[in-house]
Design goal:
mainly alpha; 80 residues; 4 helices; 78% helix
């Protein structure tokens, strides 16, 4: 039961990271209250990755790395 809950939380985080990354392309969405809250959840997880991994030609790959890390954590903890 606990592992299933952890798996669901990691899946939710992956979806939120994806929505955060896509939302960053749209200025109207970045000004919304939804994105403000989303940014408060996701940005603290992206910040350490951004300090280590530079942008590639102006493209921020930290969301992709965070999703990869979350998948690895899911596989280690849940074992799927």
């Amino acid at each position: 039961m606990l592992f299933k809950l952890i798996h669901l939380l990691i899946e939710l985080l992956i979806i939120l990271v994806f929505v955060h990354a896509i939302g960053s392309w749209f200025p109207q969405l970045r000004e919304s209250k939804f994105y403000w809250y989303l940014d408060r959840i996701i940005e603290p997880m992206l910040r350490p990755i951004r300090q280590v991994v530079p942008t590639l030609g102006g493209i921020d790959i930290s969301p992709m790395i965070l999703i990869f890390i979350l998948i690895i954590i899911d596989r280690i903890v849940v074992g799927r």
